[in-house]
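Supplementary Methods. Inverse-folding protocol.

Structures were first reduced to a discrete structure-token string of length 155. This string, shown here, constituted the complete conditioning input.
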């Protein structure tokens, strides 16, 4: 696995591992826990995704402004900027990006008070690598075949 360090962001990409149909799909993982961040990166990169990681919310926000991603996976309780604060900035900037909040404590009260801050998927820790991959694949899978390409009814 190739590793390139750029500021507070680390990019990994898997070489020959089986992965998504679109191997250019880019995921940003934001978590202040180095071990969890590294595990998520390794699991997703081994499945063929291009994955970058940021060590906290502020570094994550910087990465979001510098590059385009297909998915954001974020913790909530982090130094310098929480996951909720990062989501609020994304929404204010009108950035369209699916979000998975993977955290030890889901801020349900925040989601109730401010429903526009709800991520697409909220995953409470602990979860398995398979659970993570299942959710990511579901969000990033290609759209269904358009109806015009389906065979018509029998004559």
């Amino acid at each position: 696995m190739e590793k390139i360090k750029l500021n507070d962001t680390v990019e990994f990409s898997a070489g020959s591992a089986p992965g998504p149909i679109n191997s250019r799909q880019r995921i940003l993982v934001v978590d202040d826990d180095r071990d969890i961040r590294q595990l998520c990166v390794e699991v997703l990169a081994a499945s063929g995704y291009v994955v970058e990681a940021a060590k906290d919310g502020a570094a994550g926000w910087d990465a979001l402004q510098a590059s385009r991603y297909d998915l954001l996976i974020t913790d909530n309780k982090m130094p310098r900027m929480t996951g909720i604060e990062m989501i609020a900035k994304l929404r204010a900037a009108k950035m369209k990006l699916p979000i998975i909040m993977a955290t030890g404590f889901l801020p349900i009260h925040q989601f109730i008070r401010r429903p526009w801050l709800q991520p697409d998927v909220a995953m409470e820790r602990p979860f398995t690598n398979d659970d993570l991959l299942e959710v990511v694949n579901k969000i990033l899978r290609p759209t269904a075949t358009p109806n015009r390409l389906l065979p018509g009814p029998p004559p």
